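Exercise 7. Predict the joint structure of the components listed below.
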Amino acid sequence: MKVLSKASAYGLRALLYIVAHKKHGDYVSIREMSEELNISFHFLTKILQSLTQQGLLESYRGPNGGITLKRPPNEIFLIDVVKILDGEDFFDTCLLSLPGCGEAEPCPVHDFWKVTKAALKNEFASTSLTELGTKISENRLRLTDD
Amino acid sequence: MKVLSKASAYGLRALLYIVAHKKHGDYVSIREMSEELNISFHFLTKILQSLTQQGLLESYRGPNGGITLKRPPNEIFLIDVVKILDGEDFFDTCLLSLPGCGEAEPCPVHDFWKVTKAALKNEFASTSLTELGTKISENRLRLTDD
DNA sequence: TTATTTTGAGACAAATTCGTCTTAAATAAT
DNA sequence: ATTATTTAAGACGAATTTGTCTCAAAATAA
Ligand code: SF4
Ligand code: SF4
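Solution:
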């Protein structure tokens, strides 16, 4: 069961890198992040481009350019990132994919899944980059692979 | 967020078709199921082959052959199907895919995800084909698309 | 202006999942 | 025996996700 796409996982790691290692407002180069986090530069660029286009980041070209968070990290939530990179319907999934069922004629796991989905969505909606990032800057969590 | 692979979803639908429409012990032809459920015959064949190889089904070749459940439906659980078709590690997934973390140095959503995963696993382990099938044979749920 | 650095955009390639097709093997009926 | 029916096995193709590469556009610095 894969929850997040690579795009979401990488995008998130990049944002957390910024929160943990940079001052809010600084422009951070994608190259630097791709090297620190061992993520393909071009792939990461595309991912962050999406986040920029959707207004989560701001970008600046040229020397000393890069990207920066458009909102303070405590106002950016997991759900914002995931919705952009994995789609608005990320939390709309059905568990068993039976045809012709749904709210009106639910299968035996429907209600369970409904509750689980709601909890997941709530968790994502209430966990901000700040919460995720604190532990990392405290060095209790790493972002790099090696 | 895709939970089940197509293989699991299709395999499950086939099993439920058997439970809902056939007597236990009958050999059901894959061709029939593929047509009733609008699933590619060859694809379904491969899926059910896996279930046969793993001992969940028994197959019989030749005219009036087909497959049949090797155990009564109330002894076959969601988790059995999913583990075969989506892998033993289906419930072992991490939520954020951060490198270098885990039980010892968990990210802020780790514990939440641990509980959620356990609940999901428990639900899958306690929901049998019988429970899923009852509603279907009562015609409160359909298996076909159209 | 010219060269350098950086993101933007899109074509392309590799890997995975999903689906199709062909041929073989087993069984049954004639 | 021969033919028809059915699953078994695996090659092959299509679609999606993931990752790479090239070139353009914007900004800076010399
Ligand atoms: S009843 Fe709900 S969970 Fe079950 S198969 Fe239908 S949509 Fe999915
Ligand atoms: S702490 Fe747990 S949930 Fe969070 S990224 Fe690590 S393994 Fe995944």
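Discussion. Residues 6-139 of chain A form a domain with the Arc Repressor Mutant, subunit A fold (CATH 1.10.10.10).
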